[in-house]
Amino acid sequence: MKILHTIPREDGFFMPAEFEPHYGCLMIWPERADSWQYGAVAARRAFCEVAKAIAESEKVIMLVSFEQYDTAREMLPEYIRVVEMSTDDSWARDCGPTFVKNKAGEIRGIDWGFNAWGGLYDGLYFPWDKDNKVARKVCDLLEKDTYDARDFILEGGAIHSDGEGTVMVTESCLLSKGRNPELTKEEIEQKLKAYLNVEKVLWLPCGIYNDETNEHIDNICAFTAPGEVVLAWTDDTKDPQYEMSKRCFDYLMQETDAKGRKILVHKLPLPSPVYMTEEECEGLIHWDGEPTRTDGERLAASYVNFYIANKSIVMPFFGDEKDEEAKKILEQLFPMRKVVPVSARDILIGGGNIHCITQQIPLWK
Amino acid sequence: MKILHTIPREDGFFMPAEFEPHYGCLMIWPERADSWQYGAVAARRAFCEVAKAIAESEKVIMLVSFEQYDTAREMLPEYIRVVEMSTDDSWARDCGPTFVKNKAGEIRGIDWGFNAWGGLYDGLYFPWDKDNKVARKVCDLLEKDTYDARDFILEGGAIHSDGEGTVMVTESCLLSKGRNPELTKEEIEQKLKAYLNVEKVLWLPCGIYNDETNEHIDNICAFTAPGEVVLAWTDDTKDPQYEMSKRCFDYLMQETDAKGRKILVHKLPLPSPVYMTEEECEGLIHWDGEPTRTDGERLAASYVNFYIANKSIVMPFFGDEKDEEAKKILEQLFPMRKVVPVSARDILIGGGNIHCITQQIPLWK
């Protein structure tokens, strides 16, 4: 593995869209006792369901600590590769490498700086040194070269690419004081353009209410095709999410992408608000003396947090009346893929969802 | 990765010789403070030399703990793959998988039981649970299926195969009470024949004097070609090693291999006896309250402990007057390979040598 200090744009590498062909998917086994209630037993089952659904059409690599290796190997089918790696939690999307590709079909990783979604300012745990080494180690595992972009704090869940010159982000996340406070919005945009090799950055104002990642893009809005997105939506004007989704909608309606196309916005309904229960909170250990979740806390549930596998869409279900409606919309938007729902409450209460616990590895030649 | 409960012989898989083509070589970064003096600094340098010499003609994968990952990545050139894995020490030969191959060119690993060279009877450390998981994890890393042979205690350094139906072992090791005391010699031979798929087991009586592995074969005798071996030798009749080497020589002279060939024995001189110094002992921490080495202790130095890479022989030098003589003999025996010496005192004082810290992975189709 070469550690590269050049810039992907200069080398002709760009970030493909998630709906382009994958080699496989990276995941990390859940274990952290202040994230995953009751010894992560239910979370492990949910992660296994996600892994198995994805593995039907691409390879899955599950990273796991030494301590949990045997459990993971036992619970996962043999066609899923289990590889030991130390991490601080289970968010492959955010600490894993962002892969870029060139026209010859080669791929390379980008190793962004990772500081647990806000570092000492408003990060979610400390330390995060194990997570911050994951991207580089995954590249060595896959025998791929890696760009050193550790001086720029970014998570995979904070960016969505259409593969044709446009990425989407949220201002709430990328301009947050816990990320790159020394950089202006313009400088951040230049970084994204240089590393992801895009011409246009779409800055949605915000994300999902109470999303502790400072409102990652991947929970509110996702490309389903070039020029087309799904946006998490509620018609309940009393819900604080209404105003947030509306601002994103209005922004998107007046924007065009890098190709000059107007953006076609498909509204994807949100489930009814989901709250932590007292029993769930009791299943967590405290972190740094404090509870990590409180009884009645609203969780950032959204159907947008799905994963696009080669032949399927793996989407969260919440046991909500909107589950089937959201599934039908995704089926219409991805007619070539099978939409596979996974009961995702046990992932959601850890702080994210299916897209957050996965990271696609593009197919290479 | 499939975990197989069948027998390699029944599946048509056999152990190739080390001099057959390799995909690469497995190594483990030294770290353990009761094995490697003064923070393993000198050992790391020696391991790097070995890795670089091997990497000139095949891939090298270096397994390393989370804690040492950055150091290993920094010290090793970029063409060597560094992969995180928890281990108890650095003996890839002994805890790594033994690979077997079939006629179609597929390879599989064998996951033997590992108990630190003798378990609670006379093993060298406790616990050894991390080491005992290495073979299986390496197979998952390489996406190879693995035979479950964990009920049989064996180390890679205890066997040498000629790839044509014969393996060599030592009685002192395989019949030791710390290995498989519930099995008779005949039963052990049957196990070896079944798993390595050979017709003949050559039982050398013993190995190198004071070799703490219960005298592994790989320190005393090695195949250089089918029907040909090098045997560690001294002409000093006062040295206890003289009688040991002589017994092995006499045994080999009256034996034939699986093909019915007489065995051509090349004597490889031993260096003058090598002893631990007081300064080296002071650089080690105690284990379980006891010193792991004592001042003046004789070390099991032997030139036989070399590694056969695709295009080179990586052999230990001891700063001894016999270094060049041993090198010349190996050059004559391996005319197609370059003999590369590495100053190996800093490996030797850990308890083994170049063959012990490496494990070949046969080339597969």
- State the domain count of chain A: 1
Total count of helical runs of at least 4 residues of chain A: 12
Summarize the amount of helix of chain A as a percent range: 25-40%
CATH architecture tag of chain A: 5-stranded Propeller
CATH class assignment of chain A: Alpha Beta
Please count the beta strands of chain A (DSSP E, at least 2 residues each). Answer: 19
Explain what you see:
Two copies of one chain form a homodimer. Helix content of chain A is 26%, strand content 24%. Chain A has 365 residues and is an alpha/beta fold. A four-stranded mixed sheet of chain A has the order 1-7-6-5, with helices on both faces. In chain A, a hairpin with a 3-residue loop joins strand 16 (307-308) and strand 17. The longest helix of chain A has 15 residues, at 41-55. Chain A is globular, with a radius of gyration of 19 Å. The two termini of chain A are 17 Å apart.
Features:
alpha/beta, 4-stranded mixed β-sheet, homodimer, L-arginine/glycine Amidinotransferase, Chain A
What's the helix and strand layout?
2 copies of one chain form a homodimer.
Chain A (H helix, E strand, L loop, with lengths): L2 E2 L3 H4 L10 E7 L12 H15 L3 E6 L4 H7 L5 E4 L7 H4 L2 E4 L5 E7 L5 H4 L8 H11 L4 E8 L6 E2 L4 E5 H4 L10 H12 L3 E5 L16 E5 L2 E6 L6 H14 L10 E6 L4 E2 L2 H5 L15 E2 L7 E2 L3 E6 L5 H11 L4 E6 L1 H4 L10 E4 L3
Parallel strand pairs in A: 1-7, 2-3, 3-4, 6-7, 9-10, 12-13, 17-18
Antiparallel strand pairs in A: 2-19, 5-6, 8-9, 11-12, 14-15, 16-17
